[in-house]
């Protein structure tokens, strides 16, 4: 397999994972890539690596340019196994290389990922000279792990951003001006929502630092890199990291056993629409929660419904709420509603509301509980009551 030239003496040597559809629970319908970069300078430098299962692919791409044994430096911006999984195999091929990781969080854990080797910890402001070029290290803790950092090359005006600004998108193209813009932006949003949504405060800190850098290219760790639409993606990260809600967007999420909760969901959706709020309708039997979180990222209203099953909520709804609670920043202005039907007992609706409250959402309407099938009068009451509250 061949390397892709990015610029003179800078190559993409990563891997394309066309088939991955589950990335620790996030449904990656368009696959992904694990991006790594090779810089040919006085010190030959590899920036990041791939999943272990792509060790042969990255080594093959490196070998299309140089003998891997000639690598002097390896920069490991982030230890998660999608970037570091192949490092131990690569390190065996270049025994004289020094591996640079963040200090303290990268340095204290790297041996668990890469075994015995020569490591050097780097902190904010540290840099190394690799010949005609300099590499400056910028910690970005929690984007996406405590060890995460980005690497900036001022001579090239390139930011190697690792997880930041990435997308799970498998393509042979490497840059934002080579792919469909709408698909790219959708996948960038889905990636932020499902990987980084919780870390908005840390993202804002990182953005402040990045905004001081003169950048011609952002070479990402996943998917497409940025050279034409850099301002667009930085502006979107500023908005997403602030968890800004669109007052004209809502999501209605539910599961249903015998259609009663589904009819309630349709009625709630129509009430939102009647107030000019675009409501997206998500049946959890046919929609993955990672797609729903993409809409949650900028929706002001979140309605969640479950019938009562075995004294609790349906399992799909419980899984969605667990995921939501993990990703949503605790301080937020989102407005929520719990609803559902029941045959007897009816515990699920209060349980859904409790989860929404624990996620930090604000309840804008009393929970809606309907015994058995809703009558037309009950549906009309739901419709009217929600409109009054919006
Ligand atoms: Fe792409 Fe946090 O790893």
TrEMBL record:
InterPro entries: Flavodoxin/NO_synth, Flavoprotein-like_sf, Metallo-B-lactamas, ODP_dom, RibonucZ/Hydroxyglut_hydro, Rubredoxin-O_OxRdtase. In the N-terminal section; belongs to the zinc metallo-hydrolase group 3 family. This is Flavodoxin-like domain-containing protein. It comes from Megamonas funiformis YIT 11815. Residues 250-390 form the Flavodoxin-like domain. Pfam families: Flavodoxin_1 (PF00258), ODP (PF19583). PANTHER family: ANAEROBIC NITRIC OXIDE REDUCTASE FLAVORUBREDOXIN. Signal peptide: none annotated. PROSITE patterns: FLAVODOXIN_LIKE. SUPFAM superfamilies: Flavoproteins (SSF52218), Metallo-hydrolase/oxidoreductase (SSF56281).
């Amino acid at each position: 397999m061949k390397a892709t030239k990015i610029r003179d003496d800078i190559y993409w040597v990563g891997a394309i994972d066309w088939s991955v559809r589950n990335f620790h629970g996030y449904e990656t319908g368009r696959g992904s890539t694990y991006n790594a970069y090779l810089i040919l300078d006085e010190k030959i430098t590899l920036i990041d690596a791939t999943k272990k299962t792509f060790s042969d692919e990255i080594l093959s791409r490196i070998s299309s340019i140089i003998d891997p044994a000639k690598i002097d430096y390896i920069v490991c911006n982030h230890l998660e196994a999608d970037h570091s999984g192949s490092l131990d195999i690569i390190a065996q091929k270049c025994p004289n290389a020094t591996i640079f990781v963040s200090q303290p969080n990268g340095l204290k854990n790297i041996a668990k990922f890469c075994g015995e080797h020569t490591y050097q910890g780097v902190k904010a402001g540290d840099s190394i000279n690799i010949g005609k070029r300099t590499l400056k290290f910028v910690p970005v803790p929690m984007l996406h792990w405590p060890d995460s950092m980005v690497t900036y090359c001022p001579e090239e005006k390139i930011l190697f951003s690792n997880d930041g600004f990435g997308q799970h998108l498998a393509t042979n193209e490497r840059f934002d001006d080579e792919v469909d813009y709408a698909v790219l932006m959708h996948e960038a949003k889905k990636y932020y929502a499902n990987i980084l949504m919780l870390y908005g405060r840390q993202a804002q800190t990182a953005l402040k630092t990045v905004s001081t850098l003169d950048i011609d290219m952002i070479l990402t760790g996943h998917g497409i890199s940025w050279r034409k639409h850099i301002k667009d993606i930085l502006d979107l990260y500023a908005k997403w990291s602030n968890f800004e809600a669109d007052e004209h967007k809502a999501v209605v999420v539910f599961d249903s056993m015998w259609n009663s909760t589904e009819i309630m969901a349709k009625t709630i959706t129509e009430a939102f629409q009647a107030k000019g709020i675009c409501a997206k309708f998500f049946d959890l039997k046919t929609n993955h929660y990672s797609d729903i979180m993409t809409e949650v990222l900028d929706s002001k209203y979140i309605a969640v419904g479950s019938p009562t099953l075995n004294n609790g909520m349906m399992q799909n709804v419980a899984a969605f709420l667990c995921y939501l609670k993990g990703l949503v920043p605790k301080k937020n202005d989102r407005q929520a509603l719990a609803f559902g039907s029941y045959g007897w007992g009816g515990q699920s609706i209060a349980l859904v509301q409790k989860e929404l409250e624990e996620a930090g959402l604000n309840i804008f309407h009393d929970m809606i509980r309907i015994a058995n099938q809703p009558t037309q009068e009950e549906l009309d009451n739901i419709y009217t009551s929600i409109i009054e509250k919006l």
